[in-house]
Amino acid sequence: MLDVHRERTRALYVEHAADLHAYASRRVGRDLADDVVAETFRRVLEHLGSFDARRGIERAWVFGIATNVLRNHHRSEVRRLRAIARAGHRHELSADPLLATASKVDAERRLVDVLDAAADLDVADYEVLVLVAWEGLSSREVGAILGVDPTTVRTRMHRIRQRLEASRERPPHDTGEHP
After folding, report:
1. Any idea what the Cα angle at residue 67 is, between residues 157 and 143, rounded to 5°?
2. Tell me: the pLDDT tens digits for 5-14?
3. In the chain, what are the domains?
4. Where is pLDDT greater, at 176 or 19?
5. Comparing 86 with 10, which gets the higher pLDDT?
6. Looking at residues 69-81, what average pLDDT do you find?
7. Is there a smaller number of Cβ atoms within 10 Å at the N or the C end of the chain?
8. What average pLDDT score do residues 153-170 get?
9. In the Cβ-directed half-sphere of 49, how many Cα atoms lie within 13 Å?
10. Cβ–Cβ under 8 Å, residues 143 and 149
11. How far apart are CA 32 and CA 70, in angstroms?
12. What is the DSSP string of 69-86?
C-alpha cells in the first residue's frame, strides 16, 4: 500500500508542486517555500489514505495541507509585510524629490497603507485573501481548503475588500517627515 501512496503522492507533486511553491513563496518568501512544499508533501504521503473525494478535489486538499503548514509561519509573514511597508517608507523618503512625481509618491504611500492593512488582518482573513487574490482559487475551493462554507468565504472577501479599500481611501500615510 505504501508504494501506491508514494506513486499517488509523486503524481500530486508533479501536478501541484509549482503552484504550491508559488503560493508559499508569496506567503513566506522563496527560501521558506521549498521547506513548506517539502513539508506539505511529507504530510500528503502520510495522510493520503484519509483523502475523501466526496469532500472536495485533491488540489483543494493539497492546498489545505499547505495552508496548515503556512499557519506556522504567520507571524513571519506579518513581520515581512511590515518590513516591506517600512522599506516603502524609506524609499519614499530617500527618493530624489525632483525625479519623483506626486502621483508615484502618493501611490507608494497608499501601497504601504494597504500592506499595513493586510498585515493587520487576522489569520483566517489573511488566508482567504491570499488564496482568492493571489492564488485565484474559487470560493468553493477556498471553502474546502479552510473547512468553511463558500458563502462564508465570499462574505469574508467582501469584508476584506472593504477594509483594504478603506485603507486606500484614507489620506496617504504621513511619515511625519517633510522634504
Report:
1. 45
2. 788 889 999 9
3. 2-71 (1.10.1740), 74-169 (1.10.10.10)
4. 19
5. 10
6. 75
7. N
8. 84
9. 5
10. yes
11. 10
12. HHHTTHHHHHHHHHHHHH
Query: CA of 9: how far to CAs of 21, 57, 64, in Å?
Result: 16, 14, 15
* Separation between Cα atoms, residue 43 and residue 31, nearest integer Å: 20
Q: Of 92, 8, 132, 1, nearest to 58 (Cα)?
A: 8
Q: Tell me the per-residue pLDDT of 38-60, one tens digit each, with 9 for 90 and over.
A: 999 999 988 888 887 887 788 98
- End-to-end CA, the chain: 68
**Residue 51 — φ and ψ, nearest 5°?**
-65, 130
Instruction: For residue 150, give the amino acid letter.
Output: P
And the C-alpha cell for 79?
Answer: 513581520
Q: Distance (Å, rounded) from C-alpha 115 to C-alpha 86?
A: 10
All three cell numbers of 140, joined, read 468553493
